[in-house]
Amino acid sequence: AQTVTQSQPEMSVQEAETVTLSCTYDTSESDYYLFWYKQPPSRQMILVIRQEAYKQQNATENRFSVNFQKAAKSFSLKISDSQLGDAAMYFCAYRSRNTNAGKSTFGDGTTLTVKP
Amino acid sequence: EPEVTQTPSHQVTQMGQEVILRCVPISNHLYFYWYRQILGQKVEFLVSFYNNEISEKSEIFDDQFSVERPDGSNFTLKIRSTKLEDSAMYFCASSVGLAGTEQYFGPGTRLTVT
Question: In this structure, which of A55, A78, B14, B100 has its CB flanked by the most CB atoms within 10 Å?
Answer without folding.
Answer: A78
